[in-house]
Amino acid sequence: MINSELFQPTIPIGEPELMRASAYQRYLDEMRTEAGGISTRISQLSPSLKADLLRFGEDGADSEVVEVMAACVRHGKRVTIHLQSGDRVVPLTVFAQERLVHCPVPPEELVGKPLLDLKVMHVEPALLHPPGDTHSPLVGAEEAHYPLAPLLWELAMRGLRRELLPEIAGPAVYRVAPGLDVSSLPASGALVAAIQRLARQGASLREMSDWPGMDRERATRLLNALYLQSGLIVSRSHPDAVRDGWF
Fold first, then answer.
1. Delimiting residues of CATH 1.10.10 domain(s) in the chain
2. What is the Cα–Cα distance from 212 to 200, expressed in whole angstroms?
3. Residue partners of 58: CB distance under 8 A and separation at least 6
4. CATH number of 170-246: 1.10.10, 3.40.50, 1.10.287, 1.20.1740?
5. SS3 call for 205
6. Fewer CB near the terminus (10 Å): N or C of the chain?
7. End-to-end CA distance of the chain
8. Which H or E run contains 69?
């Protein structure tokens, strides 16, 4: 596990002090050398989460931010994702069960840049604990905690991934879950119309792609975003899903 002294979750006075990506990469290379050439990128994670990330490439090396975040949410794990943003490394701690993240920079600043610049460098079990934990020395500063949902939405709608996440891919008909608060989603225009339509009736990805203001990529991103909000029902037994699979 990474030495906690390498990263201070927040700096009480002034701007957060972030490590240079080049220095952090040297650190990762040194860890790999000490391990006899075996990458330690995700070796500290639980077997189930590690197996999930391995689907995206050898040792999870090709995984995109939204894929790692989705895996953390699915498994309900507290994980720190070290992201390269420009020439700095931002440690993003995900508290999946609490639906919070801890980040030394505001998430809107992190995703305000082109998301092509965000790169997953390392994933490890979280050192920090969530707010309210009894072990207070390991709880980050209150002002550095943010809701998870808006960040997941931005990563799904603007990130690198243009295909459905594996859990919802394949022949299927999709609907918006009844309990989803549609008004809370940062959507507008054709996306709102599509969400409202999915709340009334199911549709396949192919059908959604032909809706006004939509295409295949936009429909795919919307479905990923809804899934990450726990707001998507996936039916594979629906006649339209079976028909799509047959053809």
1. 170-246
2. 16
3. none
4. 1.10.10
5. helix
6. C
7. 48
8. helix 65-75
Contact 149, 52 (CB under 8 A): no
- Amino acid 81 reads I
Angle at 17 between CA 88 and CA 83, to 5 degrees: 35
Length, in residues, of the chain = 247
Cβ atoms 147, 191 nearer than 8 A: no
pLDDT tens digit string along 170-200? 999 999 999 888 888 888 899 999 999 999 9
Query: What distance separates the 2 farthest-apart alpha carbons in the chain?
Result: 61
Q: Are 52 and 74 in contact, with CB atoms under 8 Å apart?
A: yes
Euclidean distance between CA atoms 156 and 95, whole angstroms = 18
pTM: 0.80
Cβ contacts of residue 165 below 8 Å, gap of 6+? Answer: 66, 67, 70, 224, 227
Q: What digits encode the pLDDT tens for the residues 4-44?
A: 444 443 333 334 578 898 898 888 888 777 765 545 556 67
At 159, give phi and psi (nearest 5°).
Answer: -75, -170
What is the rounded CA–CA span in Å between residue 123 and residue 91? 9
For the record, the structure tokens of 145 come out as 């905690």
Contact assessment for residue 54 and residue 60, using Cβ atoms and an 8 Å cutoff: yes
CA-nearest of 99, 143, 93 to 231 is 99
